[in-house]
Design brief:
Largest sheet: none
Number of domains: 1
Helix content: over 70%
Number of helices: 10
Strand content: under 5%
Shape: globular
Order of helices and strands: HHHHHHHHHH
Number of strands: 0
Length: about 250
């Protein structure tokens, strides 16, 4: 049973994570996993993340213009995500918890540095057939080990030079598949503990996540998204470094 202080902290985390997603269109699992992992095992944090991530990503997925076309284009990447996540899910549990925390910190640092440096590349269409499944597999391994979906999926999808709405929808597709794969992996390894209790906690976390997302969307037009993005990435860099040091020391 979670204490009142932990419940309040979880609510605040998902409010903040939802706000970030509302403003920049992504970041809910990254922020939530990073902050929750400070106070609880990564597997428990990942279990709380499942319902908020699923609902917000499905909303993002089905509001775009090209669902069928993106599925046909990216299905090998999604298959790789499923396989990789299932293979890496054991790292979130048991004796591997410290490694998962360190891995989560490393993933946050890499993501933040890439964003701050604005590093980008272009993947030629002729290479997608063999690159997509490899990127999916790598993303799945990182997802299974850390609960974070962004590396290397986000940089790769950005490299395809999709239109803005198509990119947002492609991110929604990738994050949705990653969430489903993570849920399956956690269930297979027994990391969900009491499924009923975890489901109730995850559903409760959905409310502040949605509230934060709607607030972020409402304020999006009034904020400098670029300034917010930089502050967000610096915060992730600091948080990732803390998690890595904490796991090592």
């Amino acid at each position: 049973m979670l204490s009142a202080a932990v419940v309040a902290w979880v609510g605040a985390v998902f409010l903040a994570a939802g706000f970030v997603k509302g403003v920049v269109g992504m970041g809910l699992p990254t922020v939530a996993m990073g902050l929750l992992a400070v106070t609880m095992p990564p597997a428990q944090a990942a279990a709380l993340l499942l319902i908020p991530s699923m609902v917000t990503n499905l909303w993002q997925l089905f509001t775009g213009p090209a669902f069928g076309g993106l599925c046909r284009r990216l299905w090998t990447m999604m298959a790789g995500v499923m396989i990789g996540t299932d293979a890496g899910a054991g790292l979130l549990t048991g004796a591997y918890t410290a490694f998962a925390s360190a891995g989560l910190g490393a993933a946050l640092v890499v993501y933040a540095v890439l964003g701050l440096l604005k590093l980008s590349f272009t993947t030629p269409a002729r290479h997608e057939a063999w690159v997509s499944p490899l990127i999916g597999l790598a993303t799945g391994l990182v997802t299974g080990a850390t609960g974070v979906f962004v590396i290397p999926a986000v940089p790769y999808l950005q490299s395809l030079r999709l239109g803005r709405e198509d990119l947002i929808q492609a991110l929604g597709l990738s994050f949705t598949v990653s969430t489903v794969a993570l849920a399956i992996g956690l269930a297979r390894t027994g990391a969900l503990g009491s499924p009923t209790a975890q489901l109730a906690g995850s559903i409760a976390a959905l409310l502040p996540a949605l509230a934060g997302m709607f607030i972020g969307q409402a304020l999006r037009q009034k904020l400098s998204v670029e300034t917010f993005r930089k502050v967000f990435l610096v915060g992730l860099l600091a948080l990732g470094a803390y998690l890595m040091l904490d796991a090592v020391l």
